[in-house]
Amino acid sequence: MSQHLSVRVDEDVLARLDSESRRVGRSRSWLAKRLLDEGLRMERHPGIVFRSGPAGRRAGLMSGPDVWEVVRAAVGYERTREDGAEQAGLTPEQVGVALRYYAEHSNEIEDWIRMVDEEAERAEADWRSEQQLLAR
After folding, report:
1. Residue 66: DSSP 8-state
2. What is the rounded distance in angstroms from the CA atom of residue 67 to the CA atom of residue 50?
């Protein structure tokens, strides 16, 4: 359920918000909600940032890969954080940051993993179809 929040901001902040909302093609209110949510998540999980890309915005390590990539490399095996870090090519501290974020936002991260897996399956099917055509 949404609730109304009234906030006063400086004119330059409002101008930047308007400019960015036009750039991304979304309303000022939508963008402000997204930025507020992301800012609160970054405060709660130091070391996490949000990145834009062709598939949308996603959580990532400040100096590393996306959280979903860390989770894919580090979770699902009986190992220590150190083993997961070695597998992902990161420090144990970076893996810890990603895992703490994942613990709180597991649905979001699992959706990213599922989306990437589905895209990989589509790409492989397309490649196989091309290979069959070329083999004729």
Report:
1. B
2. 10
pTM: 0.84
| Contacts of residue 50, Cβ cutoff 8 Å, sequence gap at least 6 | 38, 41, 42, 57, 58, 59, 60
Calculate the alpha carbon distances from 66 to 10, 25, 51, 81, 114 in Å.
33, 24, 9, 17, 14
Q: Please list, in sequence order, all residues whose beta carbon lies within 8 angstroms of the beta carbon of residue 59, skipping any fewer than 6 positions away.
A: 41, 48, 49, 50, 66, 67, 101, 105, 108, 109
- DSSP letter string, 8-23: ---HHHHHHHHHHHHH
Alpha carbon distances (Å) from 6 to 9, 50, 52, 125: 10, 25, 27, 50
pLDDT by 10s per residue, the chain, length 136: 889 989 999 999 999 999 999 999 999 999 999 999 999 999 999 999 999 998 889 999 998 999 999 998 887 665 677 877 887 789 999 999 999 999 999 999 999 999 999 999 999 999 999 998 888 7
Chain-centre distance of CA 1, in angstroms?
24
Residue 105 DSSP label: S
